[in-house]
Design brief:
4 helices; mainly alpha; single chain; 143 residues
Length: 143
């Protein structure tokens, strides 16, 4: 079938079609009115479908972010150990006077971690950042 036959069939279908809202004698205007109506219906259906998909992405990304945050919180060192050691130092100063002051430099908050712990925390923070970016993208997409 040649191109002219195809165009003639399209025009004959459009001429007999009742989809066009505005009656007109011009074939071009009938085509564009029909095109606008069909494209608006398609766009509306597309937006409804994608709006539902964005809601699903937003829900799962939010749950993932909460889970990763809990996991990261559980991996953090116990700050109570340093606090307890400092309280012991304060009690010794109170009981024994200023001569009981010991060097508190050994109470640093940075403890040596194994490389596997550092890698696990690094990956967890990367996952958290990516999850938050996914939530941000879903919110922007929903707008």
């Amino acid at each position: 079938m040649s191109r002219s036959n195809t165009l003639e069939q399209i025009l004959s279908v459009l001429k007999t079609s009742t989809i066009a809202e505005e009656p007109s004698n011009d074939d071009r205007s009938k085509f564009w009115v029909t095109y606008k109506k069909v494209s608006d219906e398609y766009d509306t259906d597309f937006l409804k479908r994608e709006h539902g998909n964005v809601n699903i992405i937003l829900t799962f990304a939010g749950l993932l972010t909460a889970g990763i945050s809990t996991f990261i919180g559980g991996m953090q060192p116990d700050s109570g150990d340093t606090t307890n050691a400092l309280l012991v130092q304060l009690i010794q100063v109170t009981v024994n006077g200023p001569s009981a002051i010991h060097d508190i430099n050994n109470l640093s908050a940075t403890a040596p971690y194994s490389s596997s712990i550092v890698w696990a925390q690094t990956l967890a923070y990367i996952a958290l950042v990516l999850s938050i970016l996914a939530v941000f993208g879903a919110v922007v997409g929903k707008q």
